[in-house]
Design a protein that fits this description.
single chain, mainly beta, Thrombin, subunit H, 2 domains, four-stranded antiparallel sheet, 45% strand
């Protein structure tokens, strides 16, 4: 993930932290440490930055999404609905919505920035709108959401209308 200033954020899953680098590759520091408290993480995978400069971190083994300042300051967190896991999840932020892939249930979940579950789409399969292990996700300049459908070997594009 790269912010508007060119700082690169890398989810270091093995060491449970986010490492920051300059455009030239110089290490600028790190965010978080292993644990389950506010600002701590255990198995971070997906990262996204919103227009306010807040960092969204898919905290896999703690089964939550955390929102942090770019300096690592804890802002808020929310859990994943019962029966879901954040293992392998990736996250994208577009306007007021936070999109999270759920590869174990072959779907994409949509949250408000406060953590309220708005809805989602997808199911297991190979047809349009179906997934086999959706992983990466991102918003495009055309206002659509792109999902890397890993086991179907494709990227799907969606025009999302959230209530």
């Amino acid at each position: 993930m790269v912010d508007e200033e060119g700082v690169v954020y890398v989810a270091d899953t093995g060491f449970s932290r986010v490492v920051k680098y300059s455009r030239s590759g110089a290490r600028l520091g790190e965010i978080g440490r292993q644990g389950s408290g506010p600002g701590e993480m255990y198995g971070p995978v997906g990262l996204a930055i919103d227009e306010e400069g807040l960092l969204y971190e898919a905290d896999v083994d703690n089964r939550r999404l955390q929102v942090l300042g770019r300096d690592g300051r804890y802002v808020r967190a929310w859990g994943i609905p019962e029966g879901h896991t954040v293992d392998g999840h990736h996250v994208a932020v577009d306007g007021d919505w936070v999109y999270v892939t759920d590869p174990l249930h072959d779907q994409v979940l949509v949250y408000g920035k406060g953590g309220e579950l708005i809805g989602g789409w997808g199911r297991e399969g190979g047809g349009k709108g179906e997934f086999r292990r959706p992983m990466g996700i991102g918003g495009g300049p055309d206002g659509r959401v792109y999902v890397a459908d890993s086991r179907n070997n494709r990227v799907q594009r969606f025009a999302v209308e959230v209530p």
